[in-house]
Amino acid sequence: MAINKNHEFEELDGVKCGIVEKNVFEARAQFLKKLLEYNHYTVIIAASPLPKATPAPAPKPTEPGETPPQSPVTPAPVSAPTTFTVGVTDVTFNPINAIFSRLLHTPDGHVVTQAYWQQKEAISHDEIPYFAREN
Question: What is this structure's pTM?
């Protein structure tokens, strides 16, 4: 059991894993896999379970001689988008600590920043740590 939400682990495909992110799309899962494998982690990607559906309310009973109400037309079930859970076999891995402790590197040799991790920047530009910058 995780101590807090920042350090989760569970079993993926029969292997105990530290969870990196849950419910991500395939492109994000492949980005994380490439980055983490470059940093020498063994990555396991498993399909996330579908969300639980809420049951329809039970129809109200009718009195004798009363016609039962028409049942509403139920829409066809919408297929949920396929999402994945990304984990690493190192159960001590914590993505927040790895990013802010500057432990991860990009394939071009830069330190992984929060913006790069969130895919807001295509190239990591953090040469000077945030605490050493002049504002």
Answer: 0.70
Q: Residues 6 or more apart from 62 whose CB is under 8 A from it?
A: 68, 69
CA dist 132 and 122 (Å) reads: 23
Residue 89's domain comprises 1-50+82-119
List, as one string, the DSSP characters of 96-115. HHHHHTT--B-TTSPBPPHH
Number of domains in the chain: 1
Is residue 18 domain-resident? yes
Asked whether residue 135 is domain-assigned, the answer is no
Q: What is the mean pLDDT of each successive set of 10 residues along the chain, which is 135 residues long?
A: 69 92 94 96 90 64 64 61 91 90 90 91 72 69
Burial of 21 by CB count in 10 Å (0-12 exposed, 13-18 middle, 19+ buried)? middle
Q: Are 15 and 8 in contact (CB under 8 A)?
A: no
